Amino acid sequence: xxxxxxxxxxxxxxxxxxxxxxxxxxxxxxxxxxxxxxxxxxxxxxxxxxxxxxxxxxxxxxxxxxxxxxxxxxxxxxxxxxxxxxxxxxxxxxxxxxxxxxxxxxxxxxxxxxxxxxxxxxxxxxxxxxxxxxxxxxxxxxxxxxxxxxxxxxxxxxxxxxxxxxxxxxxxxxxxxxxxxxxxxxxxxxxxxxxx
Length: 196
Description:
The chain has one domain: tt1808, chain A (Alpha-Beta Complex), CATH 3.90.1570.10. Helices cover 23% and strands 34% of the residues. It contains three helices and 13 strands, in the order βαββαβββββαβββββ. The chain has helices at 12-25, 49-65, 123-136, and strands at residues 2-3, 32-36, 39-43, 70-73, 79-81, 86-88, 92-96, 111-117, 141-146, 151-159, 166-174, 178-181, 184-187. The chain has a six-stranded mixed beta sheet. Strand 9 (141-146) and strand 10 form a beta hairpin. It is globular, with a radius of gyration of 16 Å. 34% of the residues are buried.
């Protein structure tokens, strides 16, 4: 669900008001709150087993092939670009340990990739909203795993368009195939699916 302010794109005052609301409400509402250029997004359900297991397995597989000093991080904090008015929380962030040594949110431009496991309750947030926001934030690679269908996509090569930056390259995959995320290839075999 998206709670949209009066104007589709918000100014600094609206952004700070939304940021304050999210900080006050996050601990008292189920799920996750994020801020996009369209407003506050509320993914109403907390992630379940298949979602969390997918994130854990993908993170572990990536860390086995990445060099020392890089992490496939699944925790907090968020990534934030106050100038763009966006706060997001990727399920997995490929980031250098050195870029995590900051107070507050991570700079999204420090991420090498953002990885999302599609939520059963709000799939458009991952397939539409984050596909729009991540290139705007300068995240060079965005990967989507969809346990509803057992498919996904790797998006890369940010380029300008009349409606803002977008990913120019999309490589779709089905679970079981090897995929390349940045410079690293991992298997998608054995990832769980949501029950019908």
